[in-house]
Design brief:
It is found in: Cytoplasm. By secondary structure, this protein is of the alpha/beta class. The chain is about 30% helix and about 25% strand. The protein folds into two domains: about 70 residues, Beta Barrel (Ribosomal Protein L25, Chain P); about 170 residues, SPOUT methyltransferase, trefoil knot domain (Alpha/beta knot, 3-Layer(aba) Sandwich). The chain starts with a strand and ends with a helix. The model has no long low-confidence stretch (mean pLDDT about 95).
């Protein structure tokens, strides 16, 4: 069943009002009519089965049939800090990361990031990425939309890391080292409701300075298997491993 995320202003008693692009999607793409049913989600992550009772050119009004008891979110809150990659790879990271349960994305301007954003471009990119996260959340039947933050730097990451239970660096050199810390050694200790931050470098990886500063700030360097992964593959690897541990093994 088609799912939509509705802002707080769209909820009133037993009714839900959808506006903007959702109206176009309901009427032109899905070609829905009155009495058709959809699922609407609140900003707090509650989902309701709703019946369409009125359609106008700029508004769709629904009646709440019943509230649903859904448990679609990853038990741990995982933030993906992604070093800015080239091209449209960031869009892929956010789309697939959302499908796999990430709760937050932080674009990170690493020393070896080839891509550079000015303030205007960073704002446009954030808006674009947030839209991708919303669409991926609807497609994957999540009850929450991940947040895509503004562009961050190393100092800001280290400061924000104080609020997390686990802080990991997906460091490519760990895959080459004879003595290494594997992701599988860490994941069994992650508990539901804990906050996990994972920092992933761009195509060129991390500089020695970045790794030094992060490890000095108590970030753990981990290996993601014996092979070197592309920057856009690493988030999916990590989220899949955490999902398997917390959702399939428990």
């Amino acid at each position: 069943m088609q799912r939509y995320f509705v802002s707080s202003s769209g909820w009133e008693h037993q009714h839900v009002t959808l506006t903007g692009e959702d109206v176009h999607h309901i009427t032109k793409v899905m070609r829905m009519k009155t009495d058709d049913e959809i699922i609407c989600c609140t900003p707090e992550g509650q989902a309701a089965l709703c019946k369409i009772i009125e359609i106008t050119h700029d508004m769709v009004t629904c009646y709440i049939v019943k509230w649903l008891d859904e448990d679609k979110e990853l038990p741990a809150q995982v933030t993906i800090v992604q070093g800015l990659p080239k091209g449209d790879k960031m869009e892929l990271v956010i789309q697939k990361g959302t499908e796999l349960g990430a709760s937050r994305f932080i674009p990170f301007e690493a020393e070896r990031s080839i891509v550079k954003w000015d303030a205007k471009k960073a704002q446009k990119k954030q808006e674009r990425y947030q839209k991708i996260a919303k669409e991926a959340s609807e497609q994957s039947h999540r009850t929450m939309i991940p947040t895509v933050t503004q562009l961050s730097n190393l100092k800001q990451l280290i400061e924000e890391g104080h609020d997390y239970d686990w802080k990991l660096i997906a460091y490519e050199d760990e895959a080459k080292a004879p003595s290494f810390r594997s992701l599988k050694e860490v994941i069994p200790f992650i508990k539901p409701s804990e906050r996990v931050m994972v920092v992933i470098g761009p195509e060129g990886g991390f500089s020695e300075n970045e790794v030094h500063q992060l490890t000095e700030a108590s970030f753990l360097s981990v290996r993601l298997g014996p092979r070197i992964l592309r920057t856009e593959t690493a988030p999916a690897y990590i989220l899949s491993a955490i999902s398997y541990q917390l959702e399939e093994l428990r």
